[in-house]
Sequence to fold (245 residues):
Amino acid sequence: MLRYKCVVEYDGTNFVGWQRQLNGRSVQQAIEESLKKYLNTSIVITGAGRTDAGVHATGQVFHFDIDKELRNEEIKDALNFHLKDELISILDASKVDNNFDARRSAKKRTYKYSILNRDSPPSIFKNKAWYIKKKLNENSMKDALTVLIGTFDFSTFRSASCGATSPIRTIDNILMYQNGEMIDFKFISQSFLQQQVRSMMGCIKYVGEEKWNKEKLKMVLESKNRSNCAPPAPSHGLYLEKVEY
Fold:
């Protein structure tokens, strides 16, 4: 069997998430259907991250196996042809070693979260960023982010349905950028718990609104208690931006 790796971007608005599910159409399902049309055989793909409903990606990665040689450009062009009615685009395709695993081989994942902070509601950025009308204190948010960098028990920010065996994770870095009315946050780690980034962003918003301060955020983290978490940020502001191997 030969193994191929693909990089894909998608708008998650109308999907139930990355992973194939019974309750609606997933990104995985759409790509597997396009592979079947292209290769005339059923293919199961493995993704680097199981993004939730409404979450987008600019650099999701998946792999698949097949028993015949394929050309990289042909894979990309054929899949994009069959995905032309979906908001899914294959950016790159390449043959990889059979030991490569899109999920398990990942060394770092970068998730971006976007906030649109202005008076007027979004039009172009509807379902692409978290719209917050109240002016946020950007300096307070940037300072509070340092509390979350490092190795911790992130139980406070873990979804009740998270299937991870351990709540211990290491956040390598969190970056914050402002571009006019848009504020972007980038979270870098080898792996994340389910809803971890959205939960942390909900708490960071509280800091920006001056409901909480940096010390309160630290107490919430150290409590390891989900009930102390602020409401999670909406999924539509979240992007799986990059996976490094």
Q: What stands out?
A: The first strand starts at residue 2 and ends at 10.
